[in-house]
Each structure stands twice: as structure tokens, then as C-alpha cells.
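TA notes, week 10

Several of you asked for a full example with nothing omitted. So below is the full record: C-alpha cells for the whole chain, then the designed sequence directly under it. When grading your own attempts, check the secondary structure regions first.
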């Protein structure tokens, strides 16, 4: 009887220790975010995420420094607004897919370094076929600072929940060309309508509405962002 009781205790103790180890490992695997920042998945888990700068599927062609995990981090107000947008789109059988949110300054610095390397044209055909890389600063595709680094700017599109496919916007994300300008009428009528659907619903929930001078149909910044003049540099993980 004593042996059986002892075995049960040892088994129970082992299970408790395993649980503690798992919890500690999980805690260590996450990072403590700055105040007023959240993981988008914790606020709006149904929003799809395709964090391109963690992969080689981006305009540089390789994973970028600062992206240690394929997760979207945003300020709480920005994430909460996206949840409202997701809920409204879901009523129409649509949803959001996010390509990028908060972006560390170290990543922006790498964009700058890359843009000055005229020899690196690896992704030109896919991402900037009609643009001279030397003109990236002048055209606004690369800058010394990015709104993403303040945490309330997001790159995203709309998907059809039945097919799980992105709505046709005329170009893909990060396609650096005049055709990506949100009000460019060279796209088809349906593509233009899709862009304006995205623009209108983002504006409805507090993201800066687009104007004729913007270059990216996928790019939005929360109007009342909490850190408009702060450029963070913690890792995406």
C-alpha cells in the first residue's frame, strides 16, 4: 500500500514539475512589450497574418533584422480598431490579412543600407521593375524613419473568407510602382473598388484616409496614434 501511494505521489509531483517547466518556457519565449503595445493575435485572433519581413518573400529577398518571429505587434488602440474592422468585414464574408505592423528601427536602417547597394537587384523583377533603386528615397519608398516604428501603422489587405484569397487590388503588397498608388485609375474598375473598400473602412475606424499623393494602397496609420514622434527598436518576437 505504501509503495502504491508513493508511486502516485511521485507521478503527481512529476506532472506538476512538467507543468511548471512548460509555463516557465512559455514565459521565457515571449517578450515583455512596452506599455500600450500588444500582440495582434491576442486582440483579434481571427485576423490573418503574413509577416513578409520574417521571410524571403519581400522586396529585399531575405529575412530582415529585427524580425525574430512572424507576429504582428501594434499599439493597443491600433489593434482594437482592427478588431472592429474585422468584425464589420466578417458580416460580409470578408476579413483582414496583415503584412506588417510595428517595425523596429534596425529594420528601417537595413532598408536604407540596402537601397544604397546598387549591385543588389535580386527582387527587382517582382517588386520594382519600373523603378530605379537609386530613386527610392526621392519617391518615398524608403526613408530614415518610418511610421511603422511608432507602432500604429499597418500594412494589410482584405480577403474573401470563402476562398481565403486576397481581393484583387491590382498589385501585390510592396509592389513599388505608380500602379500601387491608391487612386491610380489605370487598374480595372473592380480593382479600384476593392482599394476604396479598404480605404473607406480603415478611415471609418480612425486610420488616416488616403489621398492622391499616397503611394501604397495597403498602408494606413491610426490618426490618434499614442506615439507619433517615438521610434522604437525592440525586436518583433
Amino acid at each position: 500500500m505504501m509503495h502504491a501511494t508513493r508511486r502516485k505521489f511521485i507521478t503527481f509531483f512529476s506532472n506538476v514539475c512538467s507543468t511548471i517547466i512548460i509555463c516557465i518556457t512559455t514565459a521565457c519565449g515571449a517578450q515583455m512589450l512596452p506599455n500600450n503595445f500588444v500582440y495582434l493575435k491576442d486582440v483579434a485572433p481571427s485576423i490573418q497574418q503574413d509577416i513578409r519581413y520574417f521571410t524571403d518573400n519581400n522586396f529585399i529577398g531575405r529575412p530582415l533584422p529585427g524580425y525574430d518571429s512572424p507576429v504582428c505587434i501594434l499599439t493597443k488602440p491600433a489593434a482594437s480598431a482592427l478588431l472592429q474592422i474585422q468584425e464589420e468585414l466578417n458580416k460580409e464574408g470578408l476579413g483582414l490579412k496583415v503584412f506588417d505592423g510595428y517595425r523596429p528601427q534596425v529594420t528601417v536602417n537595413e532598408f536604407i543600407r540596402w537601397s544604397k547597394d546598387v549591385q543588389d537587384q535580386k527582387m527587382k523583377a517582382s517588386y520594382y521593375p519600373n523603378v530605379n533603386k537609386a530613386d527610392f528615397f526621392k519617391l518615398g519608398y524608403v526613408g530614415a524613419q518610418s511610421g511603422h516604428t511608432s507602432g500604429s501603422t499597418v500594412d494589410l489587405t482584405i480577403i474573401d473568407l470563402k476562398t481565403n484569397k486576397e481581393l484583387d487590388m491590382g498589385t501585390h503588397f510592396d509592389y513599388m510602382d505608380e500602379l500601387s498608388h491608391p487612386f491610380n485609375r489605370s487598374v480595372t474598375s473592380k480593382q479600384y473598388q476593392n482599394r476604396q473598400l479598404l480605404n473607406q473602412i480603415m478611415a471609418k475606424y480612425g486610420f488616416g484616409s488616403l489621398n492622391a499623393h499616397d503611394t501604397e494602397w495597403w498602408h494606413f496609420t491610426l490618426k490618434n496614434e499614442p506615439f507619433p514622434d517615438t521610434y522604437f527598436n525592440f525586436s518583433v518576437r
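The two ends are 50 Å apart (CA to CA). Use that as a sanity check on your answer.
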